[in-house]
Structures are given as C-alpha cells and as structure tokens.
C-alpha cells in the first residue's frame, strides 16, 4: 500500500487532531507545583486548569467544541440568545480561532469539574463522558474516596444530567456556597452574565417568550468562582459583563488573580467586557493581576490585548492602579506568585542547549 492509497479523510483527522495531541496533558501531569504557589494553564475560551501543591487538580469551563463549520441556511437558530438579545436573524460567523490544546480523553486525574454556566462554549460532553467512563475518583474533605464531583449552577447541572452524568455526582451551587477540594476552597459568587438571562431553555419556534417578563434568577443560570489556593486566590468571572458589584466581591474577598471575558463586540452586541471594563473590573476587585480571556476563541469577537495595555498605561498613574494586566496565550502556563512580574506570555522557545553538542555543518562561516 502506498501513502497515497491508504490516506483517507479519517486518517488525516486522526493524525492531526487534537492539534496539540497529549502535549499539554503530559505537561500538566509532570508539573510539580511548589509550596505556596498555584499553577494554571489556559485551555482556550474561558477554560482554565488549576493545579496546587497538595496535588489538587480542577478545571473551570473546560470545553472541547467548535463553532460554525458550514454556512448552512445562513440563519441563526430561532431563539438563540444572540438573536434574542439584538433581533438579528443572520447566522453569526463565529468560527473557532484557536487549536485544541488538550485531549479530554487523555486526562488521567482531576478532582473537580467546574462550570460557570451552561452555554455551549463552557461545558464539554466529551470531557464529562471521559470522567464518567473512566470511573475517575478523588478524595473528599473527610478523606473518603468519591467519584469526581461536577460543580455548577442549576442549569449546568441539568445539562450534565441530561448528558448522563449521575445526579448524585453533581453539586448545584449558588452564591455563598463553599466547597473544599484537597488544598483548595471553592467560593461561589454572583455572576453578572446578562446574556445568560436572555437564554431560553430551548431554541426553535416553541422557544419561551421573554418579552415583558421578569428576568429569571441569575443564580440558577450562572455563577462566578473564587478558588482559594496555597498560591493565592483566583477569581474566575465566567462570561460576566461589567458590574459595579465586582467592588463588593473585592471588599468581601482577597483576590490575587482575576480572569475576565474580554472581546471586541460586534455592533449590536454587548456580550463581552471591553478593554475599559477589564480595567474597571480589576480595579473594583482590587486584584493583583488581571488576565483577559475568551477573546481568543471566536473569529467574530477577537480583540487586541494591546488596547488594554494602552488604556492601562494612560490611566495607571492618575488612578493609582495597584494591579497590572498579564497577556497570556492559549496552552500557556502561569504560576502565581512566581510569574507575577511578567506582563506577557510567550510559549517556550527551546534551543536552550545550543552549541552544547557537536554541530554538523560544512564551515563555521555558515553561521
Ligand atoms: Fe462564552
């Protein structure tokens, strides 16, 4: 058989996807987290992996899907939250713009699966299937071996149960709840994701009518998380829009690192925080480092982080900012507080051992 005769579309997909294979899975497994620190990896969109010195591993919003892959009929699903929000009917061209950096089926150990809300880019049926099928367990706060918990607001738990996650393995949380996982404590806080409020249970012609009705309880639909770790307190705002109540969270809790969903909103949309909102959130939370996320993933919401940097430089002295932004890359690692002085990330560049082994070149003048 020749290369050409045995190569198929399926063989191409299996040999190239996921793009990073198990590279990041291996990196996370091998990472030894030093005492007094917390290691984090950006999985794309708002997906974050946290690992602690006590061997705790948890994921927030790990998602393994994509966006549009065909033009179809060119229309949005009737009742889609974006259609509800702005009255557009044409399909939004939201194609996935980043590679898959983690293989959910190659994950060997996680101690909790967290979701901030139930929108499709924040939960993964593939990951849930793997955690359930592999019978993955962790230890609870009493040292008892238990199935890995799935933790999220009511609507996220309903989604997991619909997918087949056992009900008893799910934990519905609301603002004010706390859960201990190994050397971490999850503190559940209010979400400010107004897009979630205009999301109906179903799409299609029978979708519920929201016009004139009172908004439903945000706490059933979305939450923010503060993860207290030996390396600092990590605030994950899910897809929250800007809210003045960030200031209350900042007064109630010490926040070291804050993640905010940033994006360039198309005209007619107010779904993501702008550069100004990201700075206002960081100031209100009184955090040490603010890290924009989510702007990476959708082609129609991509944004330039330099806009945050320019605004930050304009405002930091006059407003006496006590925080600074950090600009990350999907698949990258950030260890707090070790990396706290860093302003931007670059993937490892390699070749550190150059000229340590013999070269194989005709002449040194080639160099
Ligand atoms: Fe999202």
From TrEMBL:
One of its GO terms (molecular function) is hydrolase activity. Transmembrane segments: none annotated. SUPFAM superfamilies: Metallo-hydrolase/oxidoreductase (SSF56281). The keyword Hydrolase applies. The keyword rRNA-binding does not apply. InterPro entries: RibonucZ/Hydroxyglut_hydro (IPR036866), UPF0173_UPF0282_UlaG_hydrolase (IPR050114). It comes from the Bacteria. Keywords: Hydrolase. Its EC number is 3.1.1.-. This is L-ascorbate 6-phosphate lactonase.
